[in-house]
Amino acid sequence: MRFVIDHDMHIHSGLSLCSGDPTQNPASILAYGKRNGLKTLVLTDHYWDEDVKKEPFEFYDIQNTAHIAPALPLPQEEGMRFLFGVETDMDKYGTIGVAKEHFDRFAFVIVPHTHLHMDGFTIDPCDDNIPARARLWVSRFETILKADIPFHKVGLAHMTCSLMAPRNIRDHIDALNMISDAAMTDLFKEAARVGMGIELNFPHQAYVNQGDFAVESNLRPYRLAKDAGCKFYFGSDAHHEAGLQEAPANFNAIVDALDLKEEDKFVI
Ligand SMILES: [Zn+2]
Ligand SMILES: [Zn+2]
Predict the structure, then answer these.
(1) How confident is the model at residue 117 (pLDDT cuts 50, 70, 90)?
(2) d(CA 234, CA 248)
(3) Distance (Å) from CA 263 to ligand 2 centroid
(4) Domains plus CATH for the chain?
(5) CA of residue 205 to ligand 1 center, whole Å
(6) For residue 87, which ligand has an atom nearest its CA?
(7) What is the pLDDT of residue 15?
């Protein structure tokens, strides 16, 4: 059975500083879920737990517990779950921004290893080159997999996000292609073993517009993940209404591109 698109588990509200859009709020997100017949929505504003030590970094100094709390209580609709989660981060020391004892505050926690645009916070200046960014993709994923966290409610956010090498799409593709099948497969086998979800939200059409090489470079990690037994969920990473509007067509394109079946689904 074809993978049923019945959820969106990575959505930002205006409380995320990079959104700041008052029209992107729990009510409008719920309406999006209703319009598209979704059964599970997860609000995942950016978050760093103030009880987890980090170096000063303004974005995460602000995105703390008090900052994201005004979204609660989330509006509910019959036949739909609207869950409270967060998108946290991992700094350059491998510290994840949710204290172990605070995971029970959230239904779902997504951690990106590809947020390599936060100079000084997630990446050192000496690593600002393509081979180092490829190495960091591997080592940061490994670090997440070694963390003592409840993987059944953890997702790897935007696994191939272009922020891993943010200068241009060429850098991004080059960095991905520097990582061997074997290195990726080792990571995916472990991700499948611990039971964490792998997020799907890459802009498929944007790669198609770049040509077959770009498409294949981006799909390779997901195909390897699927072969290794990983489970997947969709997350639009929408920060505005436009992101929500575009999501269903993109999700459908991804299901087709990866030939995803219902048994490939990660469920919380
Ligand atoms: Zn954001
Ligand atoms: Zn992100």
Answers:
(1) very high
(2) 10
(3) 26
(4) 7-264 (3.20.20.140)
(5) 21
(6) 2
(7) 98
Q: Per the confidence metrics, is the pTM higher than 0.85?
A: yes
Confidence label for 123 from pLDDT (cuts 50, 70 and 90): very high
Distance set, CA 116 to CA 65, 127, 129, 261 (Å): 23, 10, 11, 31
The number of residues making up the chain comes to: 268
Q: Please give the distance, rounded to the nearest whole angstrom, from the Cα atom of residue 46 to the centre of ligand 1.
A: 6
For the chain, how big is the Rg over CA atoms in Å?
17
Q: How far apart are CA 19 and CA 24, in angstroms?
A: 8
Which residues are within 8 A (CB) of 96 and not within 5 positions of it... i.e. 6 or more apart?
52, 88, 89, 90, 111, 144, 147, 149
Give the ligand at the shortest distance from the Cα of 122: 2
pLDDT of residue 105: 98
Ligand 2 centroid distance, CA of 112 (Å): 6
Q: What is the pLDDT of residue 43?
A: 98
Q: Classify 12 as helix, strand or coil.
A: coil
CA of 163 to the centre of ligand 2 (A): 9
Helix axes 181-194, 130-146, angle to 10 degrees: 20
Q: Which ligand is nearest to the CA of 89?
A: 2
> Which DSSP symbol is given to 265?
B
Q: Which of 61, 49, 62 is nearest to 95 (CA)?
A: 49
Model confidence over 8-40: pLDDT tens digits? 999 999 999 999 999 999 999 999 999 999 999
Contacts by 52-57 with C-beta closer than 8 Å and gap 24+?
Answer: 52/95, 52/96, 52/97, 52/98, 52/99, 53/95, 54/91, 54/95, 54/97, 54/121, 55/91, 55/120, 55/121, 57/91, 57/118, 57/120, 57/121
